[in-house]
Records
---
Amino acid sequence: MSGDANLLFLSIIVQDMDQFRQYEQVEAIRNRIPALSRTVYGKPLVYLDNAATAQKPDVVIERVDAMNRGVNGNIHRAVHRLSEETTLWYEQARDQVRDFIGAAAREEVIFTSGTTAAINTVAYAWCTQFLKAGDAVLVTEAEHHSNIVPWQLACQRAGATLRVLPVDDKGQWQMDVLETLLDERVKLVAAAHISNVLGLVNPVQALIDAAHRVGACVLIDGAQGIVHAPVDVQALDCDFYVFSGHKLYAETGTGILYGKRVWLEQMPPFLGGGDMVDTVTFEKTTYAPLPLKFEAGTGNFIGAASLAPAIDFAREMMGGQFEENQLEISAYLKEEFSKIDGLRVYGEGEHKIPLFSFSVEGCNHGDIATLLDKLGIAVRSGLMCCEPLITRFGHTGLVRASFAPYNTLAEAAVLVQGLHRVLRMLRG
Ligand SMILES: Cc1ncc(COP(=O)(O)O)c(C=O)c1O
């Protein structure tokens, strides 16, 4: 189904479309994302699982395709033309990431396979060097498993302990408790810029400043933050900032570890292998300079190169109509959800992205998501890799609708109508 046909179909489902303002820039960008015009079960896809993975625009698909068709030589290794061209596109993407996040130097930008791999790199390499028995690592109660488990493993290896900053009933960090948890034993603090369950933009600047006052190093999990908030790692003064390519419209299996050079230089390598070495003998190996010291083996170099067009695309969707559109979606859903009996949204705060995780009294999250899917509406359900947080709210799972800048108010209306229909079915 073409983009226009999809729009027509939506207007049939959602009566009185005129009440929903349309933004021509949003509509135009949608036409550049092929997946958005597909159907599921004969219905137009309403894709609201963007926090899990975003759909890819033509520019990313074309870059990957062009590379697979003719710009595919293993990077950094050979003198032949293909290797040279591939290396150029890979390294250009690094420069673009550096510029996008405001890093001081390209050597501070490491390609990884994603957020999880980036966190594990720090949890292994930084903690091997700096975390000792009796020390502590501090995380928050609202972290993704990827920002909990690597630290648990590191603490077990070092004989350190994991401390947890709790959230309140709104899902906000309990900053008044922070002072009691932060002391000189805490060597590293790891926290999400934006929660993938609550959608709250966390007060990371206050956390970074407080952590630095006790001499702790800070890693910000930017898996959601990089998509929805402007990021300037130097202004933030975080020690590490990590994110995944696939949530930022780039190829899957790509990600970034930003680290201050002062730390990266002192950290031992995480993985050993090709490209991360300088000289190798059986007696001793010396390592390549940054950033290659942390890029062992053949990574997803074509995927990494796709970060360049993906960032251009992300920039096109910042501010202006896209921002207005998202504010309208949030206001509309807040209002509509408040009218549904027994529905509770988790994550209340002034700074919240259009991401809504909710429970409905008497209905199972999995059932809601399964029935919505049959209406063509893709949402996430379950623990969302945040079991401690969801347990804290007394649930075994929630339903989550997460919007990207390319989603429309009409799609939000389809969700609301779909939800009413599903709840009528489930409640009998
Ligand atoms: C906040 C947060 N952290 C970490 C991750 C893990 O990302 P990945 O699976 O791409 O490594 C996610 C993915 O949903 C996330 O939302």
---
Amino acid sequence: MRLAEKNYFLYKDKLAIDDIILKIDEINSSINSVKKDIIKAINEDNFTKLEAYLKDYSEIISQIQKNNTENAKLETKLRESGRRLREFSSTITHLERIHVNELILNSKRILLHSFWIILLSSIIISHLISRKILQSLKLIEKMTLSISEGNFKTLKDIKSNDECGSVIKALNFMANELRNREEQLIQSKKLASIGVMTAGVAHELTNPLNNISMIAQTYLELYDNLSRNDRIEFMNKVESETDRMKEIVKNFLDFSKPKEPHLKQTDINLVIQKAYKLMQNMLYISNIDTQLELDESLPKIFIDENQIQQVLVNLITNAAQAMTKNGKLHIKSSLDKNKNYIEIYITDTGKGIPPELLPHIFDPFFTTKGEGGTGLGLSVSYGIIKNHKGDISVESKVGKGTTFTIRLPIYNGEEDKTNG
Ligand SMILES: Nc1ncnc2c1ncn2[C@@H]1O[C@H](COP(=O)(O)OP(=O)(O)O)[C@@H](O)[C@H]1O
Ligand SMILES: [Mg+2]
């Protein structure tokens, strides 16, 4: 605009005036389009001044255009107004520079703040992570302490899949293994005490042997006076006493030499049904109401059918013996909630086991049945289930009844062997 003004003064070029007017319009429209930003940069007062100076300048130009003749007064006015405008615009430029500097300073400040925020949040996050790791480490420490004290408890609900989670899983595995080993150790200690137990067996055998001897003596003494029926009765007594001896010897052998199980893929429900069939008559005679609740969807598992059947027969026999008339026997098979085990529950409504006897019922020769028991049924069963890598446990309430639970693993390593 001022260039055109210079042209006008130098060459008295009338066209330069038109040019100036055009420029003024351009300036006005561009100022209006970014009015807000300009106000922000140079403030409201300066903006009003700028507008006033421009207006003044454009009014003088309009007068010059209208006048058409040279007018020295107007020209001086125009020079004056142009100078004011130039000076004012350099002030504005200065102000703008200050504003830009401020902007730069602000961005620097924001950058610095973000840096501190990022630094602080990373400190907090790393603190949280290390706290989580510490918590897991504390758990691991507690677990190792409890293992060293002989409590092979496992930690449940491991959610994390990180290193700590794997360590806890490995520790759980170790605790399980240790518990199994300990139980095996206890069982082998029991086996080691077989030598001592033999005396027990000898004692067990003494009673029926004495009985047989007495029966034989009486039989001989009374022989001439005995009727045919009497003789048959005597012989029946001898037979039942020998049966009892056979039973004692068989149980003892089963106990002392736990046979390696011959594992075969088997439907456990069929085994339960077979055991039940064997016992059905006895249960019927004892007036026991039996209910079978078998889960048909159970997978087949690798077991020694005969051995498991023996366990079931032992448990059913015990249940029947614990109940007087009108007892109820409930046999149930199901899958445990983690789908790792098949569970068999044998529940009776018998007299129950007093809590102080519970720790002993799996001991060999422990019996509360006097001459009627050998005390080997449960210890043999325990050995068999342990050989199957399973569990047998008991819950009982005196006067209410007893539940024995057998847990057999669905996967016990046999699959690998059969698959090659
Ligand atoms: N279902 C049961 N109800 C009550 N007591 C039981 C039951 N099962 C086992 N017992 C107790 O455990 C003992 C040991 O059982 P076991 O080893 O089978 O030997 P036995 O049957 O020859 O006595 C039994 O004498 C009895 O006291
Ligand atoms: Mg028994």
